[in-house]
Write a structure and sequence with these properties.
Elements lengths: L1 H7 L3 H8 L2 H19 L10 H18 L1 H12 L3 H9 L7 H15 L8 H25 L1 H4 L2 H20 L11
Helix pairs in contact: 4-5, 4-8, 4-10, 5-8, 7-8, 8-10
Length: 186
């Protein structure tokens, strides 16, 4: 707690007074991370927004979230490597809240796109996991990628821009009916 207070530039006694332990502080931080995550993951549900447009917005928001808060990827990794006990506890406490609104919107909109014939039938949950994996892994692997492929990942803003485009094209072209494929796809 002393190191955390020093790093944050605050009084150790105040930090201890408000949180009492590292576990309670960690839970408060993770609750804040979940709120940021939720706010960033709104999936456009309006019928006039096509599925590809909505998917692009979702991917862009997810990349922007992680680019703007690089610590979030590390927190997710740490939490998941430890079995996700804090996430599970927070989710149980907030089952009636909007913590799952963005991912649930994504699932509903993907299911609707399948029913409307906009995309080929796929398991919406697997599509969501694919988007999350393609996005989050990029930020977890960024230091290694920058070392192994320095010419491609030196400029993070450019790398994120290119990655957003690629993830969208890869995922959408895997979901699109052949007549809806984006240019460059086979």
């Amino acid at each position: 707690m002393h190191e955390i207070a020093e790093e944050a530039g605050m009084n150790k006694a105040l930090l201890h007074y408000y949180f009492r332990s590292k576990d309670r502080l960690y839970e408060a931080v993770f609750k804040h991370v979940l709120e940021i995550f939720q706010a960033s993951l709104q999936f456009p549900m309006e019928p006039e927004v096509s599925y590809p447009e909505a998917l692009q917005v979702f991917i862009d928001n997810l990349f922007d979230l992680h680019a703007g808060h690089p610590e979030i990827s590390r927190l997710w990794m740490h939490e998941n490597l430890n079995g996700a006990p804090v996430v599970a506890r927070l989710m149980k406490q907030h089952l009636d809240s909007d913590f799952n609104a963005g991912p649930n919107q994504f699932l509903r909109r993907t299911k609707q796109a399948i029913e409307d014939g906009e995309i080929v039938p796929q398991d919406p949950l697997q599509v969501l996991v694919s988007v999350l994996g393609a996005t989050i892994f990029f930020f977890l692997a960024a230091p290694t990628l920058a070392f192994v492929f320095p010419g491609h990942f030196r400029d993070q803003d450019e790398a994120v821009r290119v990655r957003k485009k690629h993830v969208f094209e890869l995922l959408y072209n895997g979901l699109a009916k052949s007549e809806n494929l984006k240019p460059g796809a086979s």
